[in-house]
Design brief:
about 230 residues, 5-stranded parallel beta sheet
Length: about 230
């Protein structure tokens, strides 16, 4: 289409000189202008982000609108970025639950980007690391197969779970991100894990004051994927 418009302008210029050149746009066929307009709109179409997480992304114990996902939406709006965010996070969710729910979410929302924030509940329950890895891998592969880009959010276990289990658990995130060549947020709680005042009374869930830092940890890996098409 662009080649056609270029040739059309050249033909008018040859036939009519500078006077005709100034009238080029007014002589373009209406259908061609509509098509070009449609192409521009399609190119700038906003993306859809699917957040698949647990209580850490579902605003557990927080006032509505103060969790990191809501803060992300506010930041994007301030930047005139119309990304549509689907927060499919559920408190208590495990990797097996996310794996079971993801196919329907992909079919319904057709996201461009899928952020996976799961695994903490598997670890806290002492579930086998191999099972969590298999579930995370299945989710990532399903998202990629649908055409979406994947962002993986890492989590560490408290020291009382043992060094061996903790290292094995944490290593899964880096391993999968490397396999997928996907952005990895190394540790969701970077900068807050050792700050008791930034957690709720249960000492497991960050309070509202911590969520801007959580977004700060996630933003650099996520933002480049949310630019308009």
């Amino acid at each position: 289409m662009l080649i056609y418009l270029k040739k059309f302008r050249e033909q008018i210029s040859v036939k009519g000189g500078s006077r005709m050149r100034r009238r080029t746009l007014s002589l373009l066929p209406a259908a061609a202008l509509l098509l070009v307009s449609g192409m521009a709109n399609a190119y700038s179409a906003p993306k859809t982000l699917l957040v698949l997480g647990d209580s850490l992304s579902a605003e557990y114990g927080l006032a509505r609108g103060t969790g990191w996902v809501a803060l992300l939406e506010q930041r994007l709006q301030a930047q005139k970025n119309d990304t549509r965010i689907v927060n499919a996070s559920i408190s208590g969710e495990t990797t097996s639950g996310g794996r079971a729910r993801l196919p329907a979410l992909l079919a319904k929302h057709q996201p461009d980007v899928v952020l996976i924030e799961l695994g903490a509940n598997d670890g806290l329950r002492g579930l086998p690391v191999a099972a969590a890895e298999a579930n995370l891998r299945a989710m990532g592969e399903a998202a990629k197969k649908s055409g979406a880009q994947v962002v993986l959010v890492g989590m560490r276990m408290p020291p009382n779970y043992g060094r061996a289990y903790g290292e094995q658990f944490y290593g899964v995130y880096g391993k999968l991100a490397k396999e997928w060549k996907a952005p990895l947020v190394p540790f969701m709680f970077e900068g807050i894990a050792d700050q008791p005042q930034l957690f709720q009374a249960d000492r497991m869930h960050p309070n509202a004051q911590a969520h801007p830092t959580i977004l700060k940890n996630i933003w650099p890996r996520l933002a480049p994927l949310l630019k308009a098409k």
